[in-house]
């Protein structure tokens, strides 16, 4: 007999099915066992009565034992999901030891047992949504004729703040894990023009926040011949497309996870924009202090987000608050042609992006001003020396986006094996 996925059991009422899965919950009386079985598509209660083949194993198999069973589907309004399976043959494929995760466990124990906890309903649903998000990002760029390219994970250069670089011993030389593909992408954009990549970025984040990972998946795009405005439009279209695609495929999961369906449905381009200067004014009116040149704290970002029902851009940040590569604002050289896209609610920054400085002298001056020795940037400057063109790009945090869509408490629950300041196991 062919396997039926548990999510499809309801379509086979009155018929025989074969199920493969793991024991999610089990409860036995003297003559009967109620074994709730899960597979990747759902859970269903299976009733094993005395006399059925495998009854003794059904009585003793512990939670997370893997099983194969055949039986008949019956509609039963009392069963979770509205159906149950009357088992005729119950076989244990792998007996489980006593499962280390019980109800009401501490977050630390769950993280120590992450390799087992990823089986939980909550994480399984989140990873399904994450998969849809990644698929939608690929589709968005491919539909617009962006080429997917890859860039090195080991590099000699800082792209973002030097304080979050992970150092790597590289055959006696000092190198780093990449913070972003951007610098290499800028070089590639002079070949393929419109490019994107989804890859891990690394940040030695010393802060413990709900939004920071040491290794996260970064969806980045770069395009030649586009300006800041074009880039903003691409960003809002990308986020709108991904949110709607995730809702279309996994509305049920997002709802069960506590995602704000109404809010997500409203996520359609264009998104509101405020300047950094306006952000300071808005905060001042709310009695929240922030000085010119500072980055947003979680609290400040949350306070600003109260004014918006959709993601919103904060544009034109002070030059000193941002990396060396950003294009100076011709109308106000104190600021740059950049934007951070902030999520509604308490999820912080989803995207960082900018138009890139095209003037070699300005880049050199910025490097000097930020105390970065220009030596390792020679090749990067060549991109400007050999047919420099206006170009722009951005980077989206895949886990941040997943966190917001799924309304996850912590960004670490949006990646299977999170890497944070105090965790690199399992
Ligand atoms: O704002 P960031 O640092 O921008 C860059 O790296 C640019 N070079 C991107 C580009 O223009 N190609 O990072 C981009 C996004 C952030 O908005 C955030 O969503 C995510 O990456 N991010 C993190 N996500 C999880 N954990 C961290 N520690 C993150 N740091 C950044
Ligand atoms: Mg940023």
Poorly predicted segments: none
At the fold tier of CATH, the topology name of the largest domain is BirA Bifunctional Protein, domain 2
How helix-rich are the residues, as a percent range? 25-40%
Task: Give me the CATH superfamily of the largest domain.
Answer: Bira Bifunctional Protein, Domain 2
Q: Which hetero ligands occur in this complex? A: 4-amino-1,4-dioxobutan-2-aminium adenosine-5'-monophosphate, magnesium ion
Radius of gyration: 26 Å
Number of helices: 12
Domain count: 2
Major β-sheet profile: 8 strands, mixed
Report the structural category.
alpha+beta
- The SSE order reads EEEHEEHHHEEEEHEEHHEHHEEEHHEH
Q: What top-tier CATH class of the largest domain fits best?
A: Alpha Beta
Number-wise, the strands total 16
Strands, helices and their partners?
Elements: E1 16-28, E2 32-39, E3 42-49, H1 55-60, E4 66-75, E5 83-94, H2 107-112, H3 114-117, H4 121-143, E6 147-148, E7 154-155, E8 167-170, E9 173-177, H5 182-192, E10 194-202, E11 215-224, H6 228-257, H7 261-265, E12 273-275, H8 276-285, H9 298-305, E13 312-315, E14 338-342, E15 349-355, H10 360-369, H11 378-385, E16 391-397, H12 398-406
Helix pairs in contact: 4-6, 4-12
Bound molecules: 4-amino-1,4-dioxobutan-2-aminium adenosine-5'-monophosphate and magnesium ion (MG).
